[in-house]
Design a protein that fits this description.
The chain has 5 helices and 7 strands. The protein is α+β, with helices and mostly antiparallel strands and about 160 residues long. The protein has one domain: Pnp Oxidase, Chain A (Roll). This is Nitroreductase family deazaflavin-dependent oxidoreductase. InterPro entries: F420H2_quin_Rdtase, Split_barrel_FMN-bd. It holds the Pfam family F420H2_quin_red.
Length: about 160
């Protein structure tokens, strides 16, 4: 089976209900717990880990406050880079982390027990579509989020590790 074609049954179930506004509301409420678990485990474990979700903890610098801001995000890894989606669960506005990343592309991710400095880059055109398709095949609910957010184009970012 090709990469991305197999979806564990629990993840498939949650991806199905993930399309609903009800799960979006639950997800928003779980985000602080997910952030705490990811921080405590150095990105080794998140709330969605038991159902097969890959989550990283992204730390950006607030564009207005200058303070560190952390957010758990689903991701897909491509060629040593990490693709993340600014869906905001299909909400009306772009998530704050995506605006922070546009203002200051330098960020840090916690993932698999490591902290990596990354540079965030907003994708567009064919590259955006290719990465959108990769992430949406992993978590199909993103297509529903895009339908709900039809007044805005959901941002897609690549997080590229910064060489030491």
């Amino acid at each position: 089976m090709k990469r991305g074609q197999h979806m564990p049954e629990l993840r498939r179930f949650f991806a199905g209900i993930g399309k609903t506004k009800a799960l979006a509301a639950i997800g928003r409420r779980l985000a602080p717990a997910d952030r705490w678990v990811l921080r405590a485990t150095g990105g080794r474990f998140g709330v969605g880990t038991p159902i097969g979700l890959r989550t990283l903890l992204l730390t950006t610098i607030g564009r207005s406050s200058g303070q560190k801001r952390e957010v758990p995000l689903l991701y897909v890894e491509r060629d040593g880079k990490y693709i993340v989606i600014g869906s905001n669960w299909g909400g009306e506005r772009h998530p704050a982390w995506s605006s922070n990343l546009l203002a200051n592309p330098g960020a840090v991710i916690a993932l698999r027990g490591k902290r990596l400095a990354v540079h965030g880059r907003l994708l567009d055109g064919d590259e955006r579509q290719e990465m959108w398709d990769a992430v949406a095949s992993y978590w199909p609910a993103y297509n529903s989020y895009a339908d709900r957010a039809d007044h805005r184009k959901i941002r897609v970012f690549v997080l590229e590790p910064v060489p030491r």
